[in-house]
Amino acid sequence: MLDLRLIREQPDAVERALADKGGAALIREIVARDGERRRLLTEVEELKALRNRASEAIGQAKRRGEDATAEQARMREVGERIATLDGEVKAVDEAIQALLVQVPNVPHPSVPPGKSDEENVEVRRWGTPRAFGFAPKPHEELGEALGLLDLARAVKIAKARFAVLWGPGARLERALAQFMLDLHTREHGYTELWVPHLVNAETMLKTGQLPKFEEQLFKTVEADESRTLYLIPTAEVSLSALHGGEVLPERTLPRRYTAFTPCYRREAGTYGKDMKGIYRQHQFDKVELVKITTPEQSYEELESMVANAEEVLRRLELPYRVVERCTGDVGFSAAKGYDIEVWRPAAGKYTEISSCSNYADFGGRRVDVRYKPERGKAEHCHTLNGSGLAVGRSLIAVLENYQEADGSVTIPRALRPYMDGLARLTRPPTP
RNA sequence: GGAGAGGUGGCCGAGUCGGCCGAAGGCAGCCGCCUGCUAAGCGGUUACAGGGGCAAAACCUCUGUCCCGGGUUCGAAUCCCGGCCUCUCCGCCA
To answer: What letter does residue A417 receive in the DSSP assignment?
Structure first.
């Protein structure tokens, strides 16, 4: 969430910045509520000061053996007034909080203006889409023909939007994940973490998943509802909540974390969309990247994070492009963000395979992660996250870009060490 | 699942017939002095958040915070109720 002080001191600037993103309408009300809160605080705190002084005096009088019943009665009334005002302060606090969590992050000045994803800006392209001497097939056809992908049985044991991978298909999924983790930990300076896949409601609140995206989350059913656990929709949830409430020494920043986890999403409201293949699934694997930085570091760390994700595609020799999101399309929590889109020959277009964002202090404030400079007061960290990459979508890209005329698929060179040297996936012999 | 113990400042740890406790003492850190050498001594100092004063910083002042929430009271770290968490033992278990 945004800093209440920023809204209080520069409401007009915040409103302007949110023009494309939405949420500007909330600013005026927050300012009004904030004024109300401070009036109440002044009043109640003066009464508390009065009560504290009087109680002190009553104590002394009693020790001297004097009667203080009159003063006690007077303070009882003051106490009642305080209780009333405390209740009002609490109510206003909650109202402000409820408004504040609805306000999106302010885009960085460098973000290109625009209303929707149509105005996103292509930043660069890498690689040249291969010229096929035949009509390239979509991954689901290739996968099923090669006996790697079994959607029918996944539907039988679960439901639509689930998949079963067989033999070399399952191995390829694991190879991709391990290749990515090795790259990020060995060459890009990330520390690998293994984290809970089920987290509590507080974690979901602090990472902005609740209440807004409740309908997108799978959750457990508990006799005591307050103990409900939620399946993570991304490892970002676990990784970014990790240091909640902590103050990190500045010299330990930036922190660079990566984790491989499954991700679970209900995909409510996407009926009929991307139903073919495994592009949009209820369960998919992802190697996530998260950084915690100082405010000075965060924008260059965003650039390097994007480069880290790109490097996966370069080593896999998959053509891609990088797109910067415009002010109207940059995520709710993000100050700036890029999407990486990989080439899909069958579809003849680039589709999203990674998204990297700088949440700036917005995320650090929400989960309450701060850092302590050598000199000076603790401040909220900047947090960043990105996919490095979505594994299932990487599998799609490999199958589609590396397919041959006979329906076989070449294994990218970078993955062969993870596939026991296997160079090619071929049609299994007919039984 | 059963039984018991406990949650106090960066750490350890006092504090339970309610007030003089934001909290003794120790450790650690910082500043200074002294001394002199593989370290000690002396003095001072060191929490966080919010409000007000101030253009702002410094600073001053007020409020809150001794796991969380509620209650009793003029007043609660201290009493009462509820919750959360941690630890130990038993049972079960990959």
So the answer is: G
Strand B contact with A54 (CB < 7 A): yes
Instruction: Considering only residues 351-410 of chain A, list those whose CB is below 7 Å from strand B.
Output: 377-378
A194-237 per-position pLDDT tens digit: 999 999 888 888 888 887 888 899 988 877 777 888 999 999 99
The DSSP letter of residue A219 is B
Q: What is the ipTM of this complex?
A: 0.83
Strand stretches in A73-136, DSSP E: 121-126
- CA–C1' distance A213–B17 (Å)? 54
Query: Residues A315-371: pLDDT tens digits?
Result: 999 999 999 999 999 999 999 999 999 999 999 999 999 999 999 999 888 888 888
Report the 10 Å Cβ neighbour count for A156. Answer: 11
- Residues A180 and A310: their CA atoms lie apart, in Å, by 11
Domains of chain A by range and CATH? 4-100 (1.10.287.40), 117-425 (3.30.930.10)
